[in-house]
Write a structure and sequence with these properties.
Oligomer: single chain
CATH class of the domain at 22-46 and 96-230: Alpha Beta
Strand content: 25-35%
Low-confidence stretches: 117-123, 131-135
CATH architecture of the domain at 22-46 and 96-230: 3-Layer(aba) Sandwich
Radius of gyration: 17 Å
Largest sheet: 8 strands, mixed
CATH superfamily of the domain at 22-46 and 96-230: Vaccinia Virus protein VP39
Structural class: alpha/beta
Number of helices: 8
Shape: globular
Helix content: 25-40%
Distance between the termini: 22 Å
């Protein structure tokens, strides 16, 4: 097991104990999410705390991070305490459904890299099963809970597998949350998208802003777009 920290320009973090390792899904969501007029944030399913740390590096917002897995929360607490933003970051080991019932806070922004393997065979490791399957949090619970916790002008920002994103949009609509903007993510030029970043609000906008992001060229080198977006955050970006 690789226990070395993952280092960005503004902070470093450990992720070997978390159910979710640092990857492009969380990183792109953390840098794509709009933070204008955002003073407080809730990170649902925080894992190692990567999304919270990226948002903290881009704003002055206070961030609450929650996760059902105690090892992930312990790692988030350690990562937060060692970051330059420790005074604005808090992690708690609590189920989202329970958090809704006890929270007295409403949020400008809720971010999540939610469970998604709803129809796949359950993995043998229970911790990852909880994090990666809807047994711990399904889309309706995330959307309905977000509606309750968001301020009137608040937004929900998520990353969803492409094959599930229409389902997620429909569930949000049923909970009176509406798609405002989305980022289609392509793993390689010429491929189909495999992830979608999406932003929802309580306002039904007349038009949806659609953006596109390609990670690698056909020769597997990172694209110029990848370098442009991540250069301010990575210490260095390798060719491959």
């Amino acid at each position: 097991m690789d226990t070395r920290p993952f280092s960005f320009k503004a902070f470093s973090l450990f992720h070997h104990r978390s159910t979710m390792k640092v990857g492009s899904d969380a990183i792109l969501l953390g840098i794509w999410t709009k933070l204008v007029n955002v003073k407080n944030v809730l990170d649902v399913g925080c894992g190692s705390g990567i999304i919270s740390l990226l948002i903290a590096s881009r704003s002055s917002a206070k961030i609450d991070a929650i996760d059902i897995d105690d090892h992930s929360v312990a790692e988030s607490i350690e990562n937060f305490s060692k970051s330059p933003f420790s005074a604005r970051l808090k992690a708690e080991n609590i189920d989202f459904k329970n958090f809704i019932s006890v929270s007295e806070q409403n949020y400008d922004l809720i971010v999540s890299n939610p469970p998604f393997f709803t129809n796949d065979l359950l993995s043998p490791e229970i911790r990852k099963t909880k994090a990666r399957h809807s047994v711990s949090l399904n889309y309706n619970e995330l959307c309905a809970g977000s509606k309750k916790l968001l301020k009137e002008n608040g937004r929900l920002s998520v990353v969803i597998p492409y094959f599930k994103h229409e389902e997620f949009i429909n569930v949000d609509r049923e909970n009176s949350l509406y798609l405002n903007r989305k980022l289609l993510i392509f793993p390689k030029r010429g491929s189909s998208p495999n992830r979608v970043n999406m932003e929802f609000s309580k306002t039904n906008m007349s038009g949806i802003v659609t953006e596109y992001f390609i990670i690698r060229e056909e020769n597997n080198n990172f694209t110029a777009q990848y370098h442009e977006w991540l250069n301010d955050y990575y210490l260095s970006i390798p060719k491959h």
